[in-house]
Amino acid sequence: MTSISKPFNGTIFHTHHSSSFPHQFRQHLHSHSITLRHKSIKISAHAVPPLPQNHTVVGFGMTTVDFLATVDGYPKPDDKVRTTSSKVQGGGNAGNALTCAARLGLKPKLISKVADDAQGKSILEELEADCVDTSFIVVSKGGSSTFSYVLVDTQTKTRTSIYTPGDPPLVPDDLSQSMLLSAFDGARLVYFDGMSTETALFVGREAARNNIPILVEAESPREGLDELLTLAEFVVCSARFPQAWTQSPSIPSALVSMLLRLPNIKFVIVTLGEDGCLMLERSANEDVGLEERNVESFLELLYKEKDERLAIPTCISSLGSYLAWNYMPCKNKHGVTATRLKLVCVLQITSFGS
User: Of 120, 189, 262, 271, which shows the fewest CB atoms inside 10 Å?
Assistant: First the structure.
């Protein structure tokens, strides 16, 4: 991964549109002030830090069997279409994340639930083949494992998933404290996929009591997720989540709101599909002499640093500290008013190359 940053002068930039700016932001530009202290650094693509000596991670959430059908176009109601290819493979957010962790050289343990059916057996075998520790997966007698039908549209480059939850679901009574302590032994991080929030909270509180950092994947707002987010130090969310959760007018301002509403969060990342991802990181640095800037305008400037010729993932970072401002509603004796809140943070984008 290559990190690139150019020093800027003290000019205050104002919002304007650019064809190089991702369409999600072009549609939702909104004034939001930040301040920056600039640094410039370039990191070699081969300068990958070694894995820590203890690299055990624990994951909690859903693992499934996915029945994938690739089609030339999504069918209309009552249509019959022929697949161009089909495949059966493991899926589910937690299953995918832990498989990825294993392939990157980490030691993942997965807390989940399957049934003793053919699909559950297939899920366990595939995870074990990828060196994911499945000894903390609960296997129910009877019932059915989670599965999904997935239509992959080659024309629009989209996928549509029809998800059937497993039965019976994973509940706190399925997990003893001794089992969780065994799973947490040596863990550097606990990952949650944002599903099964009641049981996730049970596991999350135990992780917090053991001072293990928590990462939450937030795909869409759901009951119980807010409390889980308050336990998290890191959040990775879908493109639609930040605005849906904060009701902010743009993704950048929504990320600022998330860090303000969740004081334990060290960084939040939003994934943007073909446009890569955007990260806002909390910083402890503060300089009262910094000037204010417009967040959307500065983000646009970062995107202009993107080299379209690169075919490798590229990270473009401010590498400095911003003073990001947000207005939060509050009540006083005269009714509802707005309070200006300050957040020191670092802005970073990553593109996946062409």
Answer: 271
